[in-house]
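@channel sequence for tomorrow's demo:
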Amino acid sequence: MVTLRRGQWVYSQGDEGTGLCAVIEGAVRLEVALGAERDVLIGLAPAPAILGQTRRSGGGPRLLTVRANTASRVLMITDDALDRAAARDPGLWRAINELVYAQLEQMTRLAAHLLIQTPGGRVAMRLLQFAEGHDVPVSQADLAEMTGLSRKTVNGHLAALERRGVIARGYRAITLLDRQALERIAAR
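structure tokens (generated this afternoon):
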């Protein structure tokens, strides 16, 4: 178990050492490097979550950079530890393959949604995606990056949602007041 401060790195895109990362407390940022000068936030993984990949099931180097979004605790499960566990329970590899497939399906659907939705729909979809009950612990800057919009544009969409009584904004958090209305906006 590793305790992380906000911003502390878990692993980097391209790292050779693979395995799984279980987010026990807090949340981690999922980032992809586009060239040498630009990292793009593609998502957040709040606890409980398991992510990563293993060379054992046909993977390669790390696909993402993962670092703590908030103070977090993660459990790192190396490929060697997975091999030892699979020796006792051969069904483990099937479960890991199902996990990887679910992650691939989620990213594929996310890409499709981001391509077809209006800017307001992208904001609504991401709010729903990261909602923990009624709270969405996402900053406007992160929301902007994850929707491909400017912070000013996201702020305008959030203000419109707030005027309609769909959300309430606070410091580094947003509260959902009308989930059904937000779902209708995200579905457009």
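heads up for whoever presents: The first strand starts at residue 2 and ends at 4.
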